[in-house]
Amino acid sequence: MTYQEEKLLFNQKTQCTIVQYDGTIKETDSNIFKWKVGASIYDVHPFFEIIKGFIEVFEKEETFYNFPCIHLEEKKLDKICDVTIKINTEEVVILLFDYSTKYYELNKIAQQKNESILKAKELELKNQYLIDKEKFKNSFIANINHEIRTPLTGILGFIEVLEKTNLNFEQEELARIIKRQSIHLNSLIEDMVDISKIESGKIKIVDERFLFINLVEGFEETYAKLAKERGIEFETHIDPNIQEYLIGDRTRVFQILNNILNNAFKFTEEGKVSLSVTKNYQRTNKLSVSFKIEDTGLGIQEENLNNIFDRFTRFNEDKQVSGTGLGLAIVKDLVDLLNGEIKVTSEPDKGTTFDIKLPFKFDVTKSTPEKKKKKYTLPETKKKFRVLVVEDEEATQFLLMKILISHGSFFVDVAINGQEAINYLERRNYDLVLMDLKLSKVDGYQATHMIRNNYGDKVISEVPIIGFTAKATEAERDKCLRSGMDDFIAKPFEQEDLLYKIVKQIAKKAAS
């Protein structure tokens, strides 16, 4: 573009108008607006009324006034202009520069920027909402988990006590029903907690060396009894070529197989359930194992197979089968976490087959026998051992007292919070403390810290303490041990486990 063309382009965006003191337009070009000579500038646009004030204060020296981005219209013409007004002794000069195109471009950019900021803020708020929602859900599940486990501990505990009394046939059956339904309720809680952990990424895969045959034989033993009760067959086949010891997450593998076997028995009224375990392939120290679980149960409609692993999905609603619809969703999530595969085939009224492939590792070191649970016995003494139960739930207090007193080797005192427990310890010597973690005033962690650190008397500071809580997690167990407790037991518990841990700690203390 030539200099003249550039100049012409620039000139088209400017307009110069000379106005007399009375407002009459003396001279003007028409590059922007078609103003006429002889017309009043005050009639052109209300903005120019401002000139009257400038004239009134004019003091004989040439003065300039600049106004950016003034919105001026003339009929259908609409412009954004920078306006410069020059006052001298003879006239008023008005210079306009058409800034419309640039203004709208900048305005569009600013608008886009504002929209971008708003969208980013909206996304941030949505993300924060999802985070808060997830925190609330996890907190809610954790609290519900704790609140339900506490009364469940009492129900299952008293059922165990009741089963050891003289019951007639009808009473035994009622006790079995209550126990079965309580165990089922506990499994539903476990499902909710597992789903919450999976969603929040809190489930960690832990590789450990374990005796593989024991895992499968455990299913044989457990489900053979159930098959006998249901009047169906249970068959198992284990490939003898699979190594005795494998490396993998034994807990998650057990969970996967147990969920599917439980489902198979739930929906099989006659016929059989079978578990087949075979070696898929082996490369160096890596091994793929196939698990096939087949049943002759109700089966699944073809249109429902694609949704079988969805959460809260339940089929065969008319068959009165209990469950949350979370079991298979958990299975699928765990298989994915283990980098495995799972497939399902089914035919209505003929049965269902689950095929699972899971990767393991193995080593060629010499097999070592599994460690057996060490036996402990109470020290020989003519006196009974004194146990302090620190628990604020009345039903759990009574249950623990019943279990320990029935054993015949224990006296029992009960404190309802940490501070009261410390008062008891200061007045009387105890052989062991059962410390609930969630207490009013002073909780179990605080009480344990005070016992371990605030007393020079070793009878108090070194008393064995077993943590007692409804939060059945490894993190909770580790927290208990770090706080100074000697062991940990989760609610609901089995009486044998509780007594084993109590005897173990008293025996270890006596031997130290």
UniProtKB/TrEMBL annotation:
InterPro entries: CheY-like_superfamily, HATPase_C_sf, HATPase_dom, His_kinase_dom, HisK_dim/P_dom, HisK_dim/P_sf, Sig_transdc_His_kin-like_C, Sig_transdc_resp-reg_receiver. Its EC number is 2.7.13.3. It is an enzyme of class 2 (transferase). The modification 4-aspartylphosphate is found at D436. One of its GO terms (molecular function) is phosphorelay sensor kinase activity. Residues 386-506 form the Response regulatory domain. This is histidine kinase.
